[in-house]
Specification:
The protein is mainly β. It has one domain. The protein has two helices and 19 strands. The strands form five sheets. Strands 6, 11, 14, 15, 16 and 17 form a six-stranded antiparallel beta sheet that branches.
């Protein structure tokens, strides 16, 4: 990739970007400072022994070495370190890799139906999906669009996406250690009006 942006996900807008592929790599493993991946069990044992004392070691959820996301239509904001144009620009196909993601939850978003008189007819709450369904759901995201992508907690390395698939919307929430975005070309100026 010609352009590479590290830990600047807040300077990349994914709203209305089309997902080409989304996948987990190395499920049940974590990427360590070395080149080799370690099993989650070994890292948990090291953490219990006191070698890592941060709060993120205790996060619950599905862990993997990488969460890889390939999108078209992402906007690189003017404040991204790789954007020399001082204006928001579209990028060609972008690869975004989240290191050591801990997927906190994947939810099928609930909904409320009202009649013509604004009376509530039906209410369906959000449904938390099982971890073994994540890969299948991520496969359904292909060729669909991101409705929202952002950091709900600015001071933490966390990310949340809402992806529309047919009539359903899915919310994916996860923490990560590092995020790397890469692309080869800038395209037209993004009209964000």
């Amino acid at each position: 990739m010609k352009f590479k942006s590290t830990n600047e996900i807040e300077t990349i807008q994914l709203r209305d970007a089309q997902i080409k592929e989304m996948k987990l790599v190395g499920v049940g493993e974590v990427e360590t400072d070395g080149e080799a991946a370690e099993s989650v069990e070994k890292v948990k044992a090291d953490n219990a022994a006191g070698s890592v004392g941060d709060a993120e070691a205790s996060l619950k959820g599905l862990r993997a070495r990488w969460l890889e996301l390939y999108v078209e239509g992402a906007v690189v904001k003017d404040n991204n370190s790789q954007n020399e144009y001082y204006t928001d620009k579209y990028a060609d196909q972008m690869e975004i890799r989240f290191k050591n993601p801990v997927i906190e939850a994947v939810l099928l978003e609930g909904h409320k139906y009202y009649d013509a008189n604004d009376n509530l007819v039906e209410e369906v709450p959000d449904q938390k999906l099982a971890e073994d369904e994540y890969e299948k759901i991520f496969g359904k995201f292909k060729e669909n669009y991101i409705f929202y992508g952002g950091k709900p907690e600015a001071d933490k390395k966390c990310y949340q996406m809402i992806v529309d698939v047919d009539e359903d919307s899915y919310i994916v929430s996860f923490y990560y250690d590092k995020v790397i975005a890469g692309w080869n070309h800038f395209l037209n100026k993004a009209n964000m009006g």
